[in-house]
Amino acid sequence: MKIDPKHPRALSLQNREKLVWGVKNGITSPAGLIAFGRGEAFDYLLSERTQPFAKKAIRAAAAYLLLAKKPILSINGNSAILCANEFIRIAKLLNCRIEVNLFHYSQSRVKKIESLLKSLDPERVLISKKEEKIILPEIASKRAIVMREGIGNSDCVLVPLEDGDRCQALVKMQKKVIAIDLNPLSRTAKYAQVTIVDNICRCLPLLFREIKDLKNKDKRFLEEIINSYDNNKIINEALRAICAKLDDTL
Amino acid sequence: MKIDPKHPRALSLQNREKLVWGVKNGITSPAGLIAFGRGEAFDYLLSERTQPFAKKAIRAAAAYLLLAKKPILSINGNSAILCANEFIRIAKLLNCRIEVNLFHYSQSRVKKIESLLKSLDPERVLISKKEEKIILPEIASKRAIVMREGIGNSDCVLVPLEDGDRCQALVKMQKKVIAIDLNPLSRTAKYAQVTIVDNICRCLPLLFREIKDLKNKDKRFLEEIINSYDNNKIINEALRAICAKLDDTL
User: Fold this and answer.
1) Which end of chain A has fewer CB within 10 Å, C or N?
2) Is B230 within the bounds of a domain?
3) First CA to last CA across chain B, in angstroms?
4) How many contacts, defined by CB atoms under 8 Å, are there between A and B?
5) Which alpha helices (DSSP H) does B46-131 contain, by range?
6) Which one of B185, B236, B249 has the shortest CB-CB distance to A185?
7) What are the DSSP calls for A97-135, one per residue?
8) β-sheet with B176-180: strand ranges across
9) Is residue A33 part of a domain?
10) Tens of pLDDT, residues B228-238
11) Which residues in chain B have their CB less than 8 angstroms from residue A37's CB?
């Protein structure tokens, strides 16, 4: 379908087309389309723009990632289709790796996403190897399969479009978890240290810029950002923004 | 994927599986999965239950359908996959037909949905014929393609999971439009005479029962239901219910 770039919801429509293409080519799972739709609804309720609470979360996320000894970016089918390039740019800036991690797991899908990332930058993606795989405890889905040298040994994980189970398990393992989730009511939103309630396509470029801005700041400066950050407050601001949008319509 | 029937969200998970199956078999469009996801998000915000405002809308819908001279049920890929049987039961009760009408139109999909309905009841579905097709004005999508003997000449249309464009056009053509839409902010919700803000799988059995209850009432009784019904009020109640849910979390 041809999308008029002047359409008020062009970004959303273009993303839909990308995902449908992703399903046809075995990169996105069909259930990923449903998850995308849920996100669309929340994005609509957030007026489809990056709100102040998301900007504060992005700043805290940048500080966490810069302070981490071994940060890693987790990527799934939807995030790869929607913004693989942004992942590569952020991974380069942080000098870290990207690991494919799927809820609707299949080896073929993992390989396809790894190839997609490799075609953009051969260095940044952690290619899965059987002997490197470990199973994280307390995760019911195949999200539990991770690589020792990747999420396994990491101390800070960026988890966009995550499921609640794994987010909770990663936090329990003492990892710092930065989630990108449009639903401020989700378990992921609740359990992550930092929850960016925003559309992944809008917030990743902002996260990149924030990391760049903070990269040369000293440790104390970054710690101060983290110490003054309150994720519960951010979630509440997101909930209030949705209410305000609904109130406007009343 | 096997779904535990005791899972708190079993209905939602079963429906997801049905839709994914529908895509694989060419009945549902991939974009239908995204639309389903949007609905899921709103259903979640409505606590996944039929709320009092939806019950009032269902009653008004039953009255409109019973008062109509030529009611018709419009069905698309998602609604066919999720509740074809309920459409048949309601069409039988009203002695009316079901017409397939698709946003992501393809002849093959129309045929497949017609076959699915025919296999359940050979009488109820209006089989599309080239010479019967007309194009409704002011509808940009292929939703404009309808049959003269179906939606074309109808005076009351049940449009579940509708797009705003067509809803508006049908209302403009003086038809009574009953929409089922989980998003109380949508154009469909706004323009329909009656908007049932509820999950289609929950509200169709209730609509069936309501039609059955009202079937033997006289015309004045039904008119009284319609006259005392205020769709704007219903929409506002739906918006307030979502706000209340968000407030609970704050």
Assistant:
1) N
2) yes
3) 35
4) 94
5) 52-67, 77-94, 107-120
6) B249
7) EEEE--SS--HHHHHHHHHHHHHH-TTTB----GGGEEE
8) B97-100, B71-75, B156-160, B176-180, B194-196
9) no
10) 999 999 999 99
11) 33-41
Distance from C-alpha of B66 to C-alpha of B87, rounded to nearest angstrom:
15
* Domain, as residue range, for B78: 52-249
Task: Determine whether the interchain pair B246/A247 forms a contact, defined as Cβ–Cβ distance below 8 Å.
Answer: no
Is A238 within the bounds of a domain? yes
3-state SS assignment for residue A68: coil
Chain A partners within 8 Å of B197 (Cβ): none
Closest CA in chain B for residue A21: B30
pLDDT single digits (tens) B95-152: 999 999 998 888 999 999 999 999 999 999 999 988 888 888 888 888 888 889 999 9
Q: Are A175 and A155 in contact (CB under 8 A)?
A: yes
| Under 8 Å between Cβ of B246 and A42 | no
Q: Domains in chain B: how many in total?
A: 1
Q: What are the tokens at B210?
A: 């309501």
- Nearest-angstrom CA–CA distance, A90 and A96: 8
- Token reading at B243: 């706000």
Q: Do A246 and B249 touch (CB under 8 A)?
A: no
Q: How many Å apart are CA A164 and CA A187, to the nearest integer?
A: 5
Task: Tell whether B191 is covered by a domain.
Answer: yes
Distance between CA atoms of B7 and A62, rounded to whole angstroms?
Answer: 37
**Residue numbers in B near A183 (CB within 8 A):** 41
3-class secondary-structure state, position A75: strand
Q: How far apart are CA B1 and CA A133, in angstroms?
A: 23
DSSP, collapsed to helix, strand or coil, labels residue A159 as strand
With 0-12 / 13-18 / 19 or more C-beta atoms within 10 angstroms meaning exposed / middle / buried, residue A82 is buried
CATH (domain of A59): 3.40.50.12640
Nearest to B34 among A33, A185, A236 (CB): A33
Q: Say yes or no to pLDDT of A248 above 90.
A: no
Q: Given pLDDT bands bounded at 50, 70 and 90, which one contains residue B66?
A: very high
CA dist A87 and A6 (Å) reads 27
